[in-house]
Design a protein that fits this description.
Order of helices and strands: HHHHEEEEEEHH
Low-confidence stretches: 1-26
Helix content: 25-40%
């Protein structure tokens, strides 16, 4: 008798998850939906970019970059790399924390800082979790990747805003 309420609750959760899964605030082409939270749209686009990066889908990754950065990305990655069957297992790209506003630097405009995380497991080795900060900027309603930086342990443990810390380092 108690299995029926549990089953009904499970079905309700699946239906609710289906409704909320597509409610990110961004359309499939990276444009913010009317009235949507811009940080959610930026975060969705950053996750799509990082999914492409970790799977070596450089055509997609480069096409998600801002116009000033796109050509250089395509120059660095001119031909698609075939998947390596002996390569690592790569976990899903997740949002580590809520996006934050990040100030501009001498090399990059201000925007939203998004920290993503993913786990890589090489055969026979312990899993390794990587944190990546992505600076997202908006042009004509579409979010673009402006900058990508690895997040240092010190950014996560000592900085008030780890995204601003990682994205604010000036490379000389």
């Amino acid at each position: 008798m108690s299995a029926r309420p549990t089953r009904s609750a499970a079905v309700a959760l699946v239906i609710l998850a289906g409704f909320t899964a597509g409610c990110s605030g961004a359309t499939s082409d990276g444009q913010a939906a009317a009235g949507a939270d811009p940080s959610a749209a930026a975060a969705d686009r950053a996750r799509a970019y990082m999914r492409a990066v970790v799977t070596n889908d450089w055509i997609t990754a480069c096409n998600l970059m801002s116009a000033p950065r796109r050509a250089a990305c395509h120059d660095r990655h001119p031909t698609p790399e075939p998947p390596d069957p002996s390569g690592p297992a790569i976990g899903p790209v997740l949002l580590d924390r809520a996006p934050t506003r990040v100030p501009g630097t001498s090399s990059h405009p201000s925007g939203w800082g998004v920290i993503t995380t993913h786990t890589i497991t090489w055969p026979g080795k312990e899993p390794r979790t990587s944190y990546t900060a992505v600076r997202m900027t908006e042009t004509a309603g579409t979010w673009w990747v402006e900058q990508r930086e690895n997040v240092a342990d010190s950014d996560l443990t000592h900085a008030t805003d780890p995204a601003a810390s990682a994205l604010g380092r000036e490379v000389r």
